Amino acid sequence: MYLLTGSTGTIGREVMKLLVDAGEEVTAVTRAPHAAKLPADVRVAGADPETLASALEGVTALLLAPRAVGDTAAELLRLAAERGVQRVVLLSAITVEYGGGYERFAAAFTSIEAAVAASGLAWTFLRCADFAANTLAWAPQIRATGTVRGAYGNAATASVHERDIAEVAVRALRDPAHAGRRYALTGPQPLTQHDKVRLIGEAIGRRLAFQEITHQQARQAMLAQGLPEDVPDRMLGYLSTCADQPGPATDTVERVLGRPALPYAEWAIDHADAFCGS
């Protein structure tokens, strides 16, 4: 049995699908169990400590998404250790290892890594680069005007496909050989935002443009889309760093999975429908 926090998020849904397809039993943790649209064969549990305590019975390993559990992470780890959970796979950030962006975000991931390491559970840290899926925030602009208005167009990051993160997570959840590993997961090469817009255009058969705006203008536009305040700061803070120095690109995905990391062009093709229509 595997318990997944962040089960309705970008990575959690991919991990859930892979585990279910492999015939594994899965419990998905969500703050709104009755509203979650999850597969019928997935158990659903609320995020409150009392519910989690019973949901952890019989669980072998758990996926810990810090943003999904917030301040309850320490309690969840304590309950997991008490109930005999063997392994925890933590979704962390590459900035812990390579720096970049606002220090407070890297410090928060460093803190949760320390808590996981002290939990008594076998652990694996997935230090992820910026998600390729972050660029779904461009979809409304692309559908409406064909122009992405954003800051730091020349910032180059090796954005990682959520499928790569999920496949590595599943390996670590199922196989104790990954215990004690810190995996820095990136796409195969750094690409600028101009490059990514061009690749989305190629995927949907449409000529697109990137228009440079200020950091503050970009932040306000993202907030106007309804994004939580920390999201623009995470994304724009990291881009500001990568405008001066390209973000890291590692071969970790290939070493773990035995195949190259999926390129951004493939991610764009996979998500082309999001950028089409009105």
Overview of this protein structure:
With 278 residues, the chain is an alpha/beta fold. It has 2 domains: 2-129 and 161-185, NAD(P)-binding Rossmann-like Domain (Rossmann fold); 132-158 and 188-248 and 263-275, UDP-galactose 4-epimerase, domain 1, CATH 3.90.25.10. The chain is 43% helix and 16% strand. The protein is built from 13 helices and 11 strands. It has helices spanning 10-21, 49-55, 66-69, 73-82, 95-98, 103-117, 139-145, 162-174, 193-204, 215-224, 230-242, 252-257, 264-270; strands at residues 2-4, 26-29, 43-45, 61-64, 87-93, 122-128, 147-150, 156-157, 181-185, 191-192, 209-212. It has a 7-stranded parallel beta sheet with strand order 3-2-1-4-5-6-9, with helices on both faces. The chain has a two-stranded parallel ribbon with strand order 7-11. It starts with a strand and ends in an 8-residue tail after the last helix. The mean pLDDT is 93.
How do the helices and strands line up, and which of them pair or pack?
Elements: E1 2-4, H1 10-21, E2 26-29, E3 43-45, H2 49-55, E4 61-64, H3 66-69, H4 73-82, E5 87-93, H5 95-98, H6 103-117, E6 122-128, H7 139-145, E7 147-150, E8 156-157, H8 162-174, E9 181-185, E10 191-192, H9 193-204, E11 209-212, H10 215-224, H11 230-242, H12 252-257, H13 264-270
Parallel strand pairs: 1-2, 1-4, 2-3, 4-5, 5-6, 6-9, 7-11
Antiparallel strand pairs: 8-10
Question: Helical segment tally?
Answer: 13
Question: CATH first level of the largest domain: which class?
Answer: Alpha Beta
CATH fold annotation of the largest domain: Rossmann fold
Mean pLDDT: 93
Overall tally of domains: 2
N-to-C SSE string, H for helix and E for strand: EHEEHEHHEHHEHEEHEEHEHHHH
What overall form do the CA principal axes indicate?
A: globular
Range of helix content: 40-55%
